[in-house]
TrEMBL record:
Name this protein carries in UniProt: Uncharacterized protein
Gene3D superfamilies tied to this protein: RHS repeat-associated core
Organism: Paenibacillus larvae subsp. larvae
Region (Disordered): 63-82
Compositional bias of kind Basic and acidic residues: 65-82
Length: 101
């Protein structure tokens, strides 16, 4: 684990526990980054998909989750892009976006 300022970074592949009957492939998380509040900011799966998480500063609620993967050209292709909205007491009242491809 590497800690720099208010950010933590872990890099190690962890096998995902899935029943053998459900999946033949095993997905792993090879990288995870956390903010000072301990919330996940980024994960990179063994298949190259990167999930980025954004949080509202004042409430620390999740406001965006974006999944992408690198293309042969070096550019990142966005696979999913969700935006979340909450009511004043913290109930999620909207989830917009979604699967792009």
């Amino acid at each position: 684990m590497i800690q720099a300022g208010n950010m933590m970074h872990r890099e190690r592949c962890l096998p995902k526990r899935t029943p053998k009957a459900i999946s033949r492939k095993r997905l792993t998380i090879c990288r995870a980054e956390y903010n000072a509040a301990g919330q996940v900011q980024l994960t990179e799966a063994g298949n190259g998909i990167v999930a980025e998480y954004s949080y509202e500063e004042s409430t620390q609620r999740l406001i965006r989750k974006k999944d992408s993967r690198e293309q042969p050209s070096g550019e990142r292709e966005v696979l999913q892009d969700y935006h979340y909205e909450y009511d004043p007491v913290g109930n999620k009242n909207a989830k917009t976006g979604g699967r792009i491809i």
